[in-house]
Structures are given as C-alpha cells and as structure tokens.
C-alpha cells in the first residue's frame, strides 16, 4: 500500500518535470520599424509557426515584439534568423 503511493508520487513528480518546459520570453525591437497592421500580421503569421515558438505579440506603438519560446526547441539566434527571412533585423530590448 505504502509502496504504491510512493510510486504514484514519483510518477506525478516525473510528469511535472516533463511538462515544465523551459519557456523564455524575449522582447525584441525590429529594424525597419513596423509601420502598419500588415507588418504586425506578417510577423505574427510567420514567427508563430517557427519551431519552438509559443506566442508572438506585437506592439506597433512601442515597436516591440514579444516572443515566448521553448528554449529546448529553439533559441534567440534561430528566432533572429526567422525574422531576417521576413527582412526584419531584431534587437533585444534591454530589460528594465
Ligand atoms: Cu506595414
């Protein structure tokens, strides 16, 4: 009986470890600037499908792009490459 519950605990802990992915959030600023909704749509529509990318948010007013990604599957360099395919050079915004 005790053995069984210990096993269950161990398995639950393992499941948590597996699902706890290394999600990272990076805020980027593009060059050239995003000038309209179409730029935002183009960025979101493409970057969203990059491997490991979980979420893309754009802010036209502040010229920022926030990307949430799984660091097990991709990294900042690959995300930058994906942007360069869209003719945007991105720079990480300093965290305050
Ligand atoms: Cu545009």
Please summarize what this structure is.
With 96 residues, the chain is an alpha+beta fold.
Multimeric organization:
single chain
What profile does the largest beta sheet have? 4 strands, antiparallel
CATH topology grouping: Alpha-Beta Plaits
CATH architecture label name: 2-Layer Sandwich
Total individual domains: 1
Number of alpha- plus pi-helical segments: 3
Low-confidence stretches: none
* Cofactors, ions, other ligands: copper (II) ion
Q: Give the neighbour order of strands across the main sheet.
A: 2-3-1-4
- How far is it from the N-terminal to the C-terminal residue, by CA? 52 Å
CATH top level assignment: Alpha Beta
Give the strand tally: 4
State the helicity in percent bands.
Answer: 40-55%
Shape field: elongated
Radius of gyration: 18 Å
The chain-level structural class is alpha+beta
In round numbers, the mean pLDDT is 91
Q: Secondary-structure element order, as H and E?
A: HEHEEHE
Beta strand %: 25-35%
Topology of this protein?
Blueprint: H1 2-19, E1 23-31, H2 37-47, E2 53-59, E3 64-70, H3 76-85, E4 89-92
Antiparallel strand pairs: 1-3, 1-4, 2-3
This protein binds copper (II) ion.
Copper (II) ion is lined by residues 35-36, 38-39.
Explained architecture:
By secondary structure, the protein is α+β, with helices and mostly antiparallel strands. It has three helices and four strands; from the N terminus they run αβαββαβ. The termini are far apart. The site of copper (II) ion has 4 residues, from α2.
């Amino acid at each position: 009986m005790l053995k069984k519950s210990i096993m269950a605990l161990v398995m639950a802990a393992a499941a948590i470890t597996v699902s706890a992915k290394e999600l990272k959030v990076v805020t980027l600023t593009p060059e050239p600037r995003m000038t309209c909704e179409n730029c935002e749509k183009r960025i979101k529509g493409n970057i969203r499908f990059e491997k490991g990318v979980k979420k893309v948010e754009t802010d036209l007013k502040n010229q920022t792009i926030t990307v949430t990604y799984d660091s097990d599957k991709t990294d900042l360099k690959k995300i930058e490459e994906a942007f360069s395919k869209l003719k945007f050079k991105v720079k990480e915004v300093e965290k305050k």
